Amino acid sequence: MGKDSLYKKSDINRLGEFSKLSGEAFRAFVNFDHKALAEGKLSSKLKELIAVAVAHVTGCPYCIELHVNQVKKKETTKEEMAEAIMVATALKAGSALAHSVNALNAYDETGDDELYKASYFNRLKEFSSLNGEAFKSFVSFDLQAMKAGKLSVKEKELIAIAIAHVTGCPYCIEDHVKRAKKAQVTKEEMAEAIMVATALKAGSAMAHGINALNAYDERI
Prior knowledge:
By secondary structure, the chain is mainly α. The chain is built from 12 helices and no strands.
């Protein structure tokens, strides 16, 4: 491998080495991954769309390559994929913005021992006066990303819930679970979306293990 190249499609072939290096854990994850992505209350197509979206948040190029190839096999259009990626983009940016309410609390030295309260989210609107143009631009983008298009509002909210569990944003989880319920998402469907997110978040760590193998082998 060229020393300046950190990612190659062909490197994914090294993933199987973990079956020898950490066999039981590796096989347990592969089993979980297959079950999380299998058809259930959610279609395998929607699960792969969720996987593609989550991979754009974890920043795993191997996962993007793999799940885009999988989602194409489910007769997903490029437009559907693009909408899923826009939801991921809105949620990844939105989690940074949502946490800004904590920054406001810290700056104002509120003295509250609670770091997260649902009511803190009400401070978000203060950014309309603190940094109005940027705030309004994001809100406009977020509304566009989440409205029905090639994907339904229900599908987008399921993607949003999955992404919120990867960004670790409690405000986003609270908000999008409520929105998902209004869109007739069941608890079982929500749980399946969260399992896909879990598989992808763990999978991105495992996939990056390929780079660890490459780095290790270059140093011995």
